[in-house]
Amino acid sequence: RLGIGDVLLGRAIGQWVITLARPVEDERGLKGVLAVGTLLEHFQDALRVRQLPAGSVVRIVSEHGIVIAQSDDPGWIGRDLSNYFGMRRPVGEGVNEATVWPDNVERITGFASAHLAPWVVSVGLPKEVAYAAVSSRLAWGALFSTIALLIAFLIAWMFSGRIVRPLRQLGDDASV
After folding, report:
1. Closest CA to 19 of 28, 9, 29, 27
2. DSSP of 21-38, one letter per residue?
3. Which of 77, 116, 135, 176 is the most buried (most CB within 10 A)?
4. What 3-state DSSP class applies to 92?
């Protein structure tokens, strides 16, 4: 089985590293362990997504709440978010309501657990960006509804004049 180590700051190179290990076995059993240290800087490059709106963040967090990678700022690598209220480790996948992230930006967060590693990948969209499309559609819907209501009242007023006028005339003729 694949073993994934903790996020560590490499003493010799001064960069964040994560160790991946796999046992080497033969028919008699374990022969050794093959371990490879991977620079987390490579994860940073993979998270740069051009299609996301401004202020959006993609983050990978380990099972212990340590930031493995973050798309907007490599300075977050290695930070412990396990005790941060808004960044509690979710299980499975889904969407959280608007939550204030550690950088004090309120984001709507979608998250999913990784399949081969005990990590959570989350994407945070700033609340203003996420609600902008909804607000725009709501405004257009309200405008069209108001126009439809005005047209309906105009048509009702025109038809009521054609119905009420003859009824008044009939009432006047009947009272004479």
Report:
1. 9
2. EEEEEETTEEEEEEEEEE
3. 77
4. coil
What one-letter code names the amino acid at 93?
E
Buried/exposed code over 138-149 (b: 16+ C-beta within 10 A; e: otherwise): eeeeeeeeeeee
Residue 35's contacts (CB-CB under 8 Å, 6 or more residues apart) are: 19, 20, 21
pTM above the 0.85 mark?
A: no
Residue 120, both tokens = 């959570």
Residue 106: name the closest of 97, 95, 96, 98 by CA. 98
* Residue reference for tokens 């967060």: 109
Element containing residue 136 per DSSP (H, E) = helix 127-175
| pLDDT digit string, tens, across residues 22-54 | 999 888 888 899 988 888 877 776 766 667 778
